[in-house]
Write a structure and sequence with these properties.
This protein is about 30% helix and about 20% strand. The protein is of the alpha/beta class. The protein has one domain: 3-Layer(aba) Sandwich (Rossmann fold). Strand 4, helix 4 and strand 5 form a beta-alpha-beta unit.
Length: about 250
């Protein structure tokens, strides 16, 4: 009888996948979205000590703003100060304030290129005293992503990469990444109001990739003053919001 041996490379890959999976389950700290459909898909919420990527569904200003507010809403629900590393001076601070992230909790660092942004993000993560670090990055290598993921794991600080579209129109999420989750955020029609006015914004929220999980997509209402998303008011399984903002990070069972 002929025996079939397993190639050493395949064995190594399997071990790496097992290590990655075990590091993101069990007692990992998670930040819940407080939307059952989303948290159920994520195993309780976003892993805190990890790298996450967000981009707009298209290069349109509306989708770019939605992605920025989605990112700001996550950062708002973290505890402590947030470092936001920018390359362009078009981040609208009053909008972040309305999403639960006031200027008093923000530190800004302006950089000239992607390499500088990545270096400042890593330094902020390794500092260990920040609630989260947000960085606006165009391109970065897998090696750079692994460094950020390692820094986030070591310090327990969440890293959020806001992948803004560039002039060449290339999809920011086209290339592989070591991020634990990757998201696309786009604008969706708001609910019609019985009177003249603008209803709460709605977004298409696409979980493009998650490590050890499957992708998913939802239509959700945009972030409120506490940085929380919600199922649309006319959705049959809409969750009842908490009586007051709850920004506590919980530990998944």
């Amino acid at each position: 009888m002929q025996s079939h041996s397993v190639h050493p490379l395949e064995t190594l890959r399997a071990q790496i996948r097992a290590i990655e999976a075990s590091g993101l389950t069990g007692a990992a700290e998670r930040l819940p979205f407080e939307v059952q459909a989303v948290d159920g898909k994520l195993g309780g919420g976003l892993v805190v000590a990890a790298l996450h990527e967000i981009t707009g569904a298209t290069s349109s200003p509306g989708d770019d703003a939605a992605a920025s507010l989605f990112t700001g809403g996550i950062a708002a629900r973290l505890k402590g100060m947030v470092l936001w590393v920018i390359q362009r001076r078009d981040l609208f601070a009053p909008a972040l304030d309305q999403a639960g992230l006031p200027p008093s909790r923000l530190l800004y660092a302006e950089c000239g290129n992607d390499d500088e942004v990545l270096a400042v993000i890593e330094e902020g993560l390794r500092h260990g005293s920040l609630g989260g670090v947000v960085g606006e990055v165009g391109r970065f290598t897998m090696a750079a992503g692994r460094r950020l993921q390692l820094a986030a794991e070591t310090s327990g600080t969440m890293a959020l990469l806001l992948r803004r579209w560039r002039k060449n129109g290339a999809d920011p999420l086209a290339l592989p990444s070591s991020a634990v989750t990757r998201w696309r955020i786009g604008c969706a029609p708001s609910r019609a109001l019985p009177v003249s006015g603008i209803g709460r914004s709605r977004w298409t929220v696409e979980l493009v990739r998650q490590r050890s999980g499957r992708p998913a997509e939802w239509i959700l209402e945009g972030v409120d003053e506490a940085g929380r998303l919600a199922l649309p008011a006319d959705a049959p399984d809409r969750a009842v919001p908490a009586a007051r903002p709850d920004r506590q990070i919980r530990t998944a069972a």
